[in-house]
Amino acid sequence: MASQKIDLSNTDYNPCIFNLNLQDDSADLCEDLPISPLSKWLHATIIRAIPGEVEMQFIVTPQILNPAGSLHGGIQCAILDEVIGITGASLGYKDFLYAIDLKVDYLRKARLGQTLHVKGKIIRSGRTIVNCRAEIFTKDYKLIATGKSNLMVSK
User: Fold this and answer.
1) Edge-to-edge strand ranges of the sheet holding 97-106
2) 50: left (phi > 0), else alpha (psi -120 to 50), else beta?
3) What is the pTM of this model?
4) Rounded to the nearest 5°, which phi and psi values hold at 81?
5) C-alpha pair distances (Å), 114 with each of 59, 136, 142
6) Within 10 A of 33 (CB to CB), how many other CB atoms are there?
7) Alpha-carbon distance 91 to 65, whole Å?
8) H or E element, residue 79
C-alpha cells in the first residue's frame, strides 16, 4: 500500500501539538494542586486545571534571561518540568510522581516582558508510568518550546 501525502494547504493549522478540553464550568483543580517554591519564584499562575490537563502562565522577567536577552533554556526546561509535574499531580495519585526523563525541543525565543502560556496534558497513565507532554507558547500562539516526560509513580 502506497503512503498517502497529506496536504495542509486547505486546513486550519494549529501550531500547538494538542488542544486542551478545559471548560470554564468544569470541576477546576486550581486550588488543590501543589505549587513548588520554584513555581512561586517564577511567579507562576495556574489558569485552569482538570484531571490530566493543566494550563499555567509565566511572565518573562529579567532574572530568567540569558546573556543574549532571551528566556534562558534552562528556565524553559524548568517551566516544562513544573507544568508536567503539576499535570501529573492533577490525576490525584496519593503518591508523588517522579520524572524519569525529560526531552525538550527549543523552537523560538521568548523576550523580556512576554506572557507565556504553558499547557500540560497526560498522554497515557499506567500503573507505574505516566506519560505527559507540555508546550510553552506566547499569547498569540507562537510555539516557544515543547517537552515530554515519563513520570514514575512512587511506591
Assistant:
1) 45-50, 53-59, 115-125, 129-138, 143-153, 97-106
2) beta
3) 0.81
4) -65, -40
5) 6, 12, 12
6) 17
7) 32
8) helix 73-89
For the stretch 87-107, pLDDT in tens is 999 998 888 899 999 999 999
Q: How distant, in Å, are the alpha carbons of 5, 7, 13, 37, 56 from that of 2?
A: 9, 16, 25, 53, 42
Instruction: Say what the pLDDT of residue 5 is.
Output: 40
Residue 138: strand, helix, or coil: strand
Rounded Cα gap, residues 110 and 60, in angstroms = 8
| CATH fold label, 37-153 | Thiol Ester Dehydrase; Chain A (3.10.129)
Query: How many angstroms separate the CA atoms of 103 and 115, rounded?
Result: 23
- Short-list 122, 12, 139, 116, CA closest to 64: 116
Q: Are the C-beta atoms of residues 44 and 58 closer than 8 Å to each other? A: yes
